[in-house]
Amino acid sequence: MRYDVLIIGAGPVGNYLANLLARDFKVAVVERKGSLGGKACTGIIGAENYERLGLPESAVLNKLRGAVFYSRIQSFEIERKSPQAYLVDRKALERWLAERAVGKGVDYYMAAAFQGFKNGKAVLQRFGERIEIEADFYIGADGVNSTVAKAIGAQTKGEFLSGYEAEVVGNFNPDFVEVWVNKDINPEFFFWVAPVSERVARVGTFGSLDAFHRFLKIRMLKPTSIVEFKAGSVAFGVRKPWVRGNVALVGDAALQIKPTTAGGIVYGMYCAHALRRALLDGRLGDYEKGCFFVKKQISFGLRFRRIFKGMSQDDIERVFEVLGSPEAREVIEGQADFDDHVRTAKAILKRPKLLARLIKISPAIVRNLL
Ligand SMILES: Cc1cc2nc3c(=O)[nH]c(=O)nc-3n(C[C@H](O)[C@H](O)[C@H](O)COP(=O)(O)OP(=O)(O)OC[C@H]3O[C@@H](n4cnc5c(N)ncnc54)[C@H](O)[C@@H]3O)c2cc1C
Q: By its UniProt entry, which SUPFAM superfamilies does this protein fall under (predicted)?
């Protein structure tokens, strides 16, 4: 069988891309696993982009209106009138996208693991059997440890982190996500508590399993109240190139991931649109240019991450004092954008009083963010 486009990996981004391409191309998707979904992922997606990307209401488990930020010794709350983020069932989202793609004529090959390219064809392994599929274009949407990236020699010096995420039974405010920043427990990343309902929340972090367990204790959640536990990985950085010959990378495979929060679903889908345009124009080389917004956000996020890693918990406490002030909260509540962190930072730094206070904590913070 020969296709115009073969997508390797049926995660949210691969399935989304299959839908985008189905009308204009003969498309196939190959997936290593025998079923969709199941990856460690909290499934928080910015509400505005969820709607804009046309994703299904049926996969939304909860709508989040605000966030409570905790440091070691203080906390502040950001509350909006309308939902800012959705907590999504990844399996339901991926099934919905795949079923629609099949309905549009896309062929799926499940339980088929891409092994590499040979004589211009993709070589797959399916239950011990070797299959070859030929296509004009190959798209690696196979996640952070992409085999397609390896096959085209794409390299990264990015930072790889292990992530732990559990569904825990307890008592939660279903409207608010909790964000805990405590470098004494976890110097690598923040902790999140994202409620699915009043009774269940998805609790996670990136770093060590020990840090995760220490957080459960502080948050007064019992390890024995965990009803689902998953581990996964994420990488922050740049992987190059995104295109080599007739092969392109998209989503986590191209490290299109926010280094601020580790969210990758929206950025991968944004870039899927740019990839579609480049394929339609027959100019795969233009794909990266179409991802300008995502590249700008990633480069900001990497600077933000460097600052975060260089800060002590005392610095964090002082930044919390600024961000928890009435003026900063007013800016965040009025102008913060879930997926556009450059805009959010600019809005804060435009306020002379906030800018002066942040410079006092560390001029490097402001210099790097600007
Ligand atoms: C703990 C944790 C929490 C997260 N929370 C969030 C969140 O709240 N919001 C958010 O936006 N992002 C979150 N992320 C990141 C998010 O999971 C990724 O950005 C997202 O899954 C990227 O989608 P993708 O389709 O590019 O890749 P993936 O979801 O990784 O999908 C890749 C697919 O390719 C398949 N595959 C891999 N290798 C092969 C092969 N050789 N042959 C065939 N198929 C293959 C895999 O089985 C998989 O189905 C989180 C990540 C982690 C680890």
A: FAD/NAD(P)-binding domain
